[in-house]
Structure formats: C-alpha cells, structure tokens
Design goal:
Structural class of chain A: mainly alpha
Oligomer: heterotrimer
Bound molecules: sodium ion
Largest interface: A-B, 66 and 60 residues
Largest sheet of chain A: none
Distance between the termini of chain A: 38 Å
Radius of gyration of chain A: 23 Å
Number of helices of chain C: 13
Order of helices and strands of chain A: HHHHHHHHHHHHHHHHHHHHH
Protein name (chain A): TRAP transporter, DctM subunit
Strand content of chain C: 5-15%
Chains: A mainly alpha (442), B mainly alpha (167), C alpha/beta (334)
Structural class of chain C: alpha/beta
Radius of gyration of chain C: 20 Å
Largest sheet of chain C: 6 strands, mixed
Domain TRAP C4-dicarboxylate transport system permease DctM subunit (chain A): 8-438
Order of helices and strands of chain C: EHEHHEHHEEHEHEHEHEEHHEHH
Shape of chain C: globular
Helix content of chain A: over 70%
Membrane topology (chain A): Multi-pass membrane protein
GO molecular function (chain A): transmembrane transporter activity
Shape of chain A: globular
Number of strands of chain C: 11
Strand content of chain A: under 5%
Transmembrane segments (chain A): 64-86, 98-121, 127-144, 156-180, 192-213, 234-257, 263-280, 292-316, 336-365, 377-402, 422-440
Chain lengths: 442, 167, 334
C-alpha cells in the first residue's frame, strides 16, 4: 500500500517540474522516514526512528559505488560523445539527409534512417541511456529542421534508441539469462528475430503514417538544379559516417574490443572523421565534451535518484505485494500468459526492470514450467515486455533521457504522445510472439 | 553582493566543467589505449583498466553540480513550461531547499564511514596490478556531494536574483 | 521468547543456486529451530545492489549477516584469501580439518576481528575448473601474452608467467570469449559454467589448480551476535554449519548433473590438464608470491605457515586413503 502511495506522490511532485532526479530522491527520503516509523510500530521513539532511517540511507554510498564501478555503464558518455561530435561537425546531419534523399519519393525517409542507424547502434550497446541520447542528438535536430512533427520525431527516437534492449547484446537479456538459468548466448540468438521484426514494424508504421498524414513527415525536397548526381553525392556523404558505425560493430566482431570499449572506438573514430572533413577544432571538441559531461551527469543523477526510490520502494514491502499477486495467477496456459504479460507491463510503468526480473520471474518460472511453457520463449516474451517498460510514461527512462537533449520547444507531453503508437506496435509484436512463436524460431 | 557571490560560484562550477570535459577526453584515450595495447601488443594493465572507471566516476559524480548550474537536469515540464518566471524561481528555490539539499546532505554525511573504512584498512584493488588507495575514489562520493551542495547555493542565488530582478 | 528479526545480504542474486539456496536453508532452519521467533530475511544483490559491499555492510550493521567469499576482501587484507582457497592449497577435507581441528577458525576470527564481524564457513564449491580456453596450452610459451580473465591470486600467479590478465565485466564475458577479445577465462565449474554457455564457444576445458576448495563465508555482525540470547547463538551457529554442508553437497550434485549434460550435448569438449612443466612453473610462481607477501605481512606469514604445516600432515593421509582409493578403483575400471 505504502508503495502505491509513494508512486502517486512521485507522480504529483514530478508534475511540479523540479528536476526529476532530485524529486525521485526526495520522495524516497520522505517515504524512507515513514517506513522507519512503520517498522518500529507500535511504539516508535525518535531516536530509534532516526537510527532506522539513517541506517537505511547509509546504503546509498554502496549503491552509488556500484554504479561507479559498473564499467558497462561507461558506454553512456562514450556513445553520447560520439553522437555530439557527429552532430556538431554536421556529419550526422549529412548522413541522415543523404539517407533521406536516397529514399526518394518515400515519405518519412529521415525517420526510417533514424530507425536503421538506431538498429546499428543497438547491436553494439545494451545500455538504454547510451543509444537513446546518442540518437537524440544525432537525429532530432535534423528531423525538426525538415518539419517532422515533434510527436513522430521523438517517438521514433525513443523507440529506435530502446531497440538496444532487445537486439543483442543487452543488459535485459543478460539479467534474464541469470534469472532463467539460460545461456546468455542462446538468449541473444533467440532475441534477434523478434528484434528485427520490431524494426520492420517501426519502419512499416512510419511509411504508412507518412502517407496518411502528409504533414507529419515532409519529403526532403532537392532543388532541381542540384538533382543531377544527387544520388551519387548522397552515397558519398553516407559512406564515411556509416563506415564509422559499422567499425564500432566490427571492432566487437573482430575481437578487438568489448561492446563497452567499442563505444570509445566510436567516439575516437568520430573525432578522426570530423578531422578528415576539416571540421575538428579545439572548440568543437571541448564544447562536445562539456555537453557530454552535462548530459551524462543528468542520466546518472536520474539513476542515483531512482536507486534511492527503488531502495525505499522495496523497503516498504511493495515487492511482497507484487509477489502475492503473481502467486495467484491462473494455472492455465493462455490465461497465465496474458495475465502475466499484462502484470509485468503494468509493473514496468513504475519499477525498474532489474527489480521486475528478480521479483517476478522467480515466481512465474515454476508456474510456467508446470504448464509446460518453453523457458526460452517465455524469456523472450518478458524481454520484449521489459523493453516496452523503458518507453511507458510516466517513468520510462528513455523518455527522461530524450527530454534531456531536446530543444526547449519539445515538451515532455510531446514525447509522451509520441511514444504511444510505438508502444502499441510493441504490444502487437509481443502478441504475435505469444500466438505464433514458430514464426520467430521459438 | 548576492550577484557577486552567484558569479563567483558560477565561475568555480564552470571551472569544474572544464576539468570534467578534459577528464572525459582522457577517458576516451584511456579506453582506446587499453584496447590497442591488448589487441596489438597483448599487454593489458589492470591498473590502466581501473583508471577508466575512476575517470568515469569523477565525471558522473561532479557533473551533477555542473549540470545543475547549466539547467541540464530533466524536468517534467507540462505545467512548468506555462508558469511565470517568478513561479519557476519559487519552485526552484523551494525544490532546492526541500528536495535537493536534504538528499545531498544525507549522502554527504552518510558516506564518511564508507570512505573512512577504506582509508583505515588501506584498501587496494583486489585484482593483479590494480590501483592502490581505494579511499581516494570512494572519497569522491562525499567530495562530489559537497560540490553539489556548493553548486546548489549558486543555483539558489541565481533564482533569488531572478526573483529580485523580476519584481 | 525474544523476537529477533535479522537481515542477510548476499554477494549473489537470489536466484543463484546453490549459493542462494544455502542462505535460504539457513533462514529456514533458524526459523524452525527457534519456533518462529528468530527470523532472517535474505536479500540478493539485485536488492541491495552492492555485491562487493557485504563485508562493509555487515560491519556497519546495515545487515546483521552476509554471505560472500573471504577472498573478495583481498584488497582490504591479503590474508583473507586463506579462508576461501589458494592456488595449490588444500582440498575440501583437508581444509575443513584445518578449519575445525587445525586452528583455522581461530585464525579466521583473528583476521576478521578488526572488522568487528565473525566469519564462519559458508559452503564449499570443491575444486573449481581451470577455465575455458580457445587454444591448447602446450608449453609455457603458449601462456605468454594469452589474454585471460582470471581475478585474484591466481591472476597474480598467471601474470608472473606472462599471461595478459585482463578485467572484463561478467555481462560481457560471453561476447568477449566468443569474439576472441580474450583467449581464455575461468569461472567456477560445470554447474555454474553451463549457464554462461562457455562450452558452446570454447573447445578446451582445463582442470583446476587455482581454487581447490573454494569455501564461501557467512559474516555476522559481532555486536548483533553478542546481543543474541545464548540459545539463538547456538541455533545460528548450528544452522550455518548445516547450510554450509548442504551447499557442498548441492554443488557437487549440480556439477555432476551439469557435466553429464555437457558431455552428452557437446561431446567435443576436450578436458585438458596443463602440461607438467607449466604446472611446475605455476607452483613455483605461487610459492614465490606467498613468500613475498609473507615477508611484508606477519599475519599472512602466520596463516601461511599454519596451512603449510597442516597440509603436509593431512596430505600424507589423503594420499594413502582418498587418493589411493580413487586411483585403485580407476585402475580396476580400466
Ligand atoms: Na543491444
Ligand atoms: Na572462479
């Protein structure tokens, strides 16, 4: 119960508009104090309550230290730096414009290109902040410049940026591998088809919506006199930055770098590329670096606030409530699948995916085994579902991260509205995996 | 007087921003160097590898204060955007007092023991060739939150000055 | 009776069998033996998010208990390695005899005194495997420049032999070994390795030398322990011992199952022993390392001497009993 009130309190206070990170943290503080009182009922004394409260929050340095030495998270600043350098040197703009031109008469070319570039990035990182922010700085300004609706632009970026969770490598899949006791490599292989289908569906949606509503994704008009050889010119503009992104992937596949290290290859490569185009000045490098520092700090401040929030959330016993509900799910295949998927999606609205994985899955797993549900199939369903949780308002992390790099005219509500169609697509793809697993090789 | 203090704090926070920007570039070179040494020369140094996350930690911890001054922290803005500058300033002042400062103070004071333990034990890396003096990197937690509190005062002044200019 | 509610933090997630099972067993038997009055809530790393903060958190009293491995505190006190396992050290029987009858427990409490905690054996994994290798190790030269993830003392031994010891986060190990970013890694044994899937990407599985008897540990906050009623103290100590013993059995059975499964599904896995000259060099490097640490740390020397002396005696018995029996039956089977 306290957990639900805590969630509502966070919701209301967030709406006031003070920075998300500190709001999360202070809600945790307040409810931590309440939890300390409740813990000591019926006769709490001030000293005991204070003791309980400080003991709870003395966990914070440990949690912060765990974030500090989680080297996988280094991908966040590295990818953001790559994105900002590509943007500041205008290489990103030329890449997307040229890809847009190559799509010719097909409307929505910029958005489709964003999904494609996002897919490539997704194949080299599994950290959500890294790809969402990188895609945000690379493609949002370009799409807005060409008159794309804020809704479509932000929705596309959030969705493309979150692909990293389902397209391997991915932290979600690694954690599910641990909980399900399935080899991570097998999960990676199994997630590939669903991930690519998702990419296909995003593109299909963009093509259709751009046709139906001509205002949301205007065509890139190439002036008549420049038309000659524009395809050739577009190709030459695409090649270098695309090579860079492929090199990032290549460095992993060739065994040169780990996925996280490949992000540094990307950042350094972007600087070399910018230098080749004579766009690299000391000012650009320092500006890009400072901007990256600020955005990275914004991402991690949210992580620190959220870790305080989830610490207290669990402390109030909210996880036990969830446990109780899950244990009561029906023992019949379709009822179980539908209800468990719905429950996970609902939880994804407000608690983080690691918590969900470890609280919910151990309860659902034995039931699913009794019913005879293939664990690999079930794991992929949950992964897909958790991926959606990064997108769902109000607490979807992708939304906050993208907001952090948006120009002021794009509001949180634009982003919230923008992701709705993409969430629906995810639900449809999820449903298709539930109904026709064989199509995905599951 | 208030404006002068605001400017001074602002300059120091900006100076930190520049330091962190350089640290980030060093981190990129650090990772790239480690990749190159391992791949080309089959020579890894665990110490150099640990240096990566040491730099990373400094960036994410101290960056929080820098981001505050530069208004880089995310807000849910559907109401905030429609408010008068005066209301915004009030929200920021009250929020900083009741949301930011308590949290920052709690983490600041709450991490002394954490750092002290590492110092007394003379804790070092547990891996072959890793870095010594773990208390230094652990000490970045209270230091960075002290810096955040410092930056928060600048931010308070900034908003108070905005209020006074407005009225 | 007094109501006591404790919390225990693990270095692992709450789904990691059989490590987490040991803690759940402990909590269950403590609750049952105390008639429901003494309860322990077990929290995995996914909750407290500080897998390597267990010692600090038990010391600080955020948790009354912890479940971890002593050698994780090598950076705080090098002597802590002896209470888990060391390269070329004792096997499980020998080590248990040292702990309970050879003065090991006393030395362990002495080591943990400065942390204001008590440490008890927390379950053994037995011999850990030497790791998964992409190429065969035929001579010392093959170790030179080999890119391997191998932490702790074993890493220091390998570093002395020219191995390129490197740190890779657990989540990236599979991709790194698969793509050749590293050439080899060590993990635990079949039971836990099978979940990581290394057997699908590396052909050689080397036998163990570096962790012959990895004993986990229960940590108990000393102040909290002293505050317990006498009978609860007895319940706790007994329950820890039972949980540790059960974990050793569970781990043995899990590994036997997993190894049978691996062998059937992947008959091409080649189990290898390091060649004798390589092992000799490893042993020499390990002894040199111990002597270096002993020269600068009197307590390290004290524990080292105790283990060396005990092992000499115990191994003589192992040789004519366990070892000889296995050798004899092995010869009969052939
Ligand atoms: Na990914
Ligand atoms: Na091991």
């Amino acid at each position: 119960m306290t957990g639900i009130i805590m969630f509502l309190a966070a919701l209301i206070l967030l709406a006031v508009g003070y920075p998300v990170a500190f709001t999360f943290g202070s809600v945790a503080l307040f409810f931590g104090a309440i939890a300390a009182v409740v813990e000591l009922l019926p006769d709490p004394t001030l000293i005991e309550v204070a003791d309980e409260f400080f003991s709870m929050f003395s966990m914070m340095p440990f949690r912060i230290y765990s974030i500090m030495n989680n080297t996988i998270l280094m991908a966040v600043p590295l990818f953001i730096l790559m994105g900002i350098i590509l943007q500041k040197s205008q290489l990103a703009e030329r890449l997307l414009e040229s890809m847009g031109i190559l799509f010719g008469k097909v409307r929505g070319g910029l958005a489709i290109s964003t999904v494609l570039v996002g897919t490539l990035l997704a194949a080299s990182t599994g950290v959500v902040g890294a790809s969402v922010v990188a895609m945000g700085v690379i493609s949002l300004p370009v799409m807005l410049k060409y008159g794309y609706s804020k809704k479509l632009a932000t929705g596309t970026i959030c969705a493309a940026g979150t692909l990293g969770q389902i397209i391997p490598p991915s932290i979600v899949l690694i954690i599910l591998g641990d909980v399900f006791q399935l080899p991570v490599g097998d999960l990676f292989k199994a997630a590939l088809a669903p991930g690519l289908v998702l990419v296909g569906c995003y593109i299909l949606y963009i093509v259709i919506i751009a046709l139906v509503d001509k205002r949301v994704a205007p065509q890139i008009i190439v002036p008549e006199e420049e038309k000659k050889g524009s395809v050739g010119r577009a190709l030459t503009a695409i090649l270098p930055p695309l090579t860079l992104i492929v090199m990032v992937l290549g460095s992993i596949f060739a065994g040169i770098a780990t996925p996280t290290e490949s992000a540094a290859v990307g950042a350094l490569g972007a600087m070399v590329l910018a230098a080749m185009y004579r766009k690299l000045t000391r000012k650009i490098v320092m500006d890009a670096s400072l901007e990256t520092v600020k955005i990275t700090a914004m991402v991690f401040a949210i992580l620190i606030g959220a870790t305080a929030f989830s610490m207290v959330f669990v402390y109030t016993g909210a996880d036990l409530l969830v446990e109780e509900f899950m244990t009561g799910l029906p023992g019949e295949k379709w009822g179980f699948l539908i209800l468990s998927m719905a429950a996970i999606m609902l939880l994804g609205f407000f608690i983080d995916f690691i918590e969900i994985s470890y609280i919910v899955v151990p309860i659902l797993l034995p039931i699913s085994q009794v019913i005879g549900i293939d664990p690999m199939w079930f794991a992929i369903l949950i992964a897909m579902n958790l991926q959606t949780s990064f997108l769902t308002p109000p607490f979807g992390f992708s939304l906050f991260y993208l907001k952090g790099v948006c120009p002021p005219e794009v509001s949180t509500v634009d982003i919230y509205r923008g992701v709705v169609p993409f969430i629906l697509i995810q639900v449809l793809v999820l449903a298709s995996i539930v109904i026709m697993p064989h199509l995905y090789g599951l | 007087m208030l404006e002068k203090t605001e400017k001074t704090i602002g300059r120091i926070v900006n100076g930190m921003g520049t330091v962190l920007a350089v640290a980030l570039l060093l981190m990129v070179l650090n990772v790239a160097y480690d990749v190159m040494m391992r791949y080309l020369f089959r020579a890894s140094s665990v110490g150099m590898q640990e240096m990566e996350w040491h730099l990373f930690s400094v960036i994410i911890l101290f960056g929080v204060g820098v981001a505050l001054q530069h208004e880089a922290h995310v807000r849910v803005d559907f109401l905030y955007d429609r408010m008068l500058p005066k209301t915004k300033a009030y929200i920021n002042i009250i929020g900083t007092f009741f949301f930011l400062l308590p949290l920052a103070l709690l983490i600041f004071f709450g991490s002394f023991g954490f750092v002290h333990d590492a110092y007394v034990m003379n804790e070092i890396s547990e891996d072959p060739g890793g870095l010594p003096y773990r208390f230094l990197i652990k000490g970045m937690i209270p230091l960075s939150f002290a810096f955040l509190i410092f930056a928060a005062f600048g931010y308070l002044l900034q908003n108070i000055n905005n209020l006074r200019k407005g009225s | 009776a007094d109501k006591v509610r404790w919390k225990l933090a693990m270095s692992w997630s709450s789904t990691l069998t059989p490590f987490a099972t040991a803690c759940n067993n402990l909590a269950k038997s403590v609750e049952e033996m105390s008639g429901g009055n003494f309860t322990i809530r077990v929290e995995g790393a996914e909750k407290h998010k500080a897998a390597l903060g267990i010692l600090d958190m038990t010391k600080g009293g955020q948790y009354e208990m912890g479940h971890s491995a002593s050698y994780y505190w090598k950076g705080k006190d090098i002597s802590s390695v002896f209470f888990t396992t060391v390269p070329f050290g004792m096997n499980v029987d020998e080590q248990n005899a040292w702990l309970y009858r050879g003065g090991g427990m006393e030395l362990m409490q002495k080591a943990y005194e400065k942390f204001d905690v008590l440490s008890y054996p927390g379950g053994n994994t037995g011999v850990q495997m030497g790791g998964w290798f992409q190429k065969e190790i035929k001579s010392l030269d093959d170790l030179k420049g080999l890119k391997m993830r191998i932490p702790g003392l074993a890493g220091e031994v390998f570093a002395k032999l020219g191995v390129n010891v490197t740190n890779i986060p657990a989540g990236e190990l599979y991709t790194s070994l698969d793509r050749g970013t590293i050439d080899a890694l060590e993990w635990v044994g079949p039971g836990m390795d099978i979940k990581m899937g290394f057997h699908k990407i590396a052909p050689y599985y080397y036998t163990g030398w570096h962790e012959p008897a990895t004993e986990l540990q229960f940590l108990v906050n000393k102040k909290a322990f002293d505050k317990l009623p006498k009978e609860y103290q007895a319940i706790l100590v007994t329950a820890m011992k039972a949980a540790a013993a059960d974990m050793y059995t569970d781990n043995f059975a899990d590994s036997a199952d997993a190894w049978a499964q691996m062998k059937t599904e992947f008959p091409n896995i080649e189990v290898k022993e390091f060649p004798k000259p390589v092992l000799q060099a490893m042993k020499k490097a390990a002894d040199e390392l111990y002597d270096e640490y002993a020269a600068s740390d009197p307590f390290f020397k004290e524990v080292l001497d105790s283990q060396r002396a005990y092992m000499k005696k115990a191994r003589a018995w192992t040789n004519i009993s366990e070892f000889n029996y296995i050798k004899t039956t092995q010869e009969l089977a052939e």
